[in-house]
Design a protein that fits this description.
Family: Belongs to the G-protein coupled receptor 1 family.
CATH superfamily: Rhodopsin 7-helix transmembrane proteins
Number of strands: 0
InterPro entries: GPCR_Rhodpsn, GPCR_Rhodpsn_7TM, Olfact_rcpt
CATH class: Mainly Alpha
Shape: globular
Organism: Sciurus vulgaris
CATH topology: Rhopdopsin 7-helix transmembrane proteins
Protein name: Olfactory receptor
Order of helices and strands: HHHHHHHHHH
Oligomer: single chain
Largest sheet: none
Radius of gyration: 22 Å
Strand content: under 5%
Main location: membrane
Length: about 300
């Protein structure tokens, strides 16, 4: 009887894992299709060749990158009996994930600054938000991402791991790895808290300041059409920003022990897998220019057929 109950339990577990595999695979495919489609649409439609859509194309690229750091390995682990990852693979996974997540944080701040300049300083917008300055903002975002990745990865993997090294998470994240360290982690946790706070709060401050000024400027607009256009653009930005920073702050900026591991995993699934899929839909469904560009592409394709 016990053997039969164990067999039923294993079959039930395999079914659940398979369903999770199908769900995450569909989400990952939608992430790739949505973000690659957004990039292709922006690059091929000359009406979208503006700083705002340049930043949006970079955001799509980053979403593809940091989702791809985590999701393929998760999909393999859901079906494979061997769910191990090498020490070197764990280092690489964590380093690239932290780099792209930090880069996205600063890129969202750059996008908020771009909206501030477009709405609050329209006369100086074209002279200040040039192609060169946009490239510099993206390069600076990646530089901050690289610095944070180097510091955080060194902070974790310089500590001793005595085993058994079973990561209580679905990818090599900072907090779960610190649980495996067989030494005092107070300093490492303090470094994590301080650096995570800086790379989250600094860009979030830029975002909140920029959008506070933007909302004031929109409220002063006399044209209802202009106000509606500005709101439609900024609303999609602000929604994506609120989702991203909310989940990151919940995961990394809380003091140690303030949230359970299970809650942390649920939130991590949201910002590593769900958000990269949602971003292209948030920007396309709420943005008239993107919808018009997509409609033009579909009309051209239909005429060619």
């Amino acid at each position: 009887m016990a053997h039969r109950e164990c067999s039923i339990h294993q079959k039930g577990l395999k079914t659940i894992l398979f369903l999770l595999f199908v769900a995450f695979l569909l989400i990952y495919v939608m992430t790739l299709v949505g973000n690659l489609g957004m990039m292709a649409l922006i690059f091929t439609d000359c009406r979208l060749h503006s700083p705002m859509y340049f930043f949006l194309s970079v955001l799509s690229f980053i979403d593809i990158c940091y989702s791809s750091v985590v999701t393929p390995k998760l999909l393999v682990n859901l079906l494979a009996s061997d769910k191990s990852i090498s020490f070197e693979g764990c280092v690489v996974q964590m380093a690239f994930f932290v780099m792209h997540a930090t880069t996205e944080s600063f890129l969202l701040a750059s996008m908020a600054y771009d909206r501030f300049m477009a709405i609050c300083q329209p006369l100086h917008y074209s002279s200040l938000m040039t192609k060169g300055s946009c490239m510099q903002l993206v390069a600076a975002s990646y530089a901050f991402g690289g610095i944070n990745s180097t510091v955080q990865t060194g902070n974790v993997f310089a500590l001793p791991f005595c085993g058994p090294n079973q990561v209580p998470h679905y990818f090599c994240d900072i907090k779960p790895l610190l649980h495996l360290v067989c030494a005092n982690t107070a300093t490492a946790e303090m470094v994590l808290y301080i650096i995570s706070s800086l790379v989250t709060i600094l860009p979030a401050t830029v975002v909140l300041t920029s959008y506070s000024l933007v909302w004031v400027a929109i409220g002063r607009m006399r044209s209802a059409a202009g106000r509606k256009k500005a709101l439609s653009t900024c609303a999609s930005h602000f929604l994506a920003i609120a989702i991203f920073y909310g989940t990151v702050i919940f995961t990394y900026v809380q003091p140690h022990g303030s949230s359970s591991d299970s809650n942390g995993q649920v939130v991590s699934v949201f910002y590593t897998i769900i958000i990269p899929m949602l971003n292209p839909f948030i920007y396309s469904l709420r943005n008239k220019e993107v919808k018009d560009a997509l409609q033009r592409k579909l009309q051209v394709n239909n005429s060619l057929c």
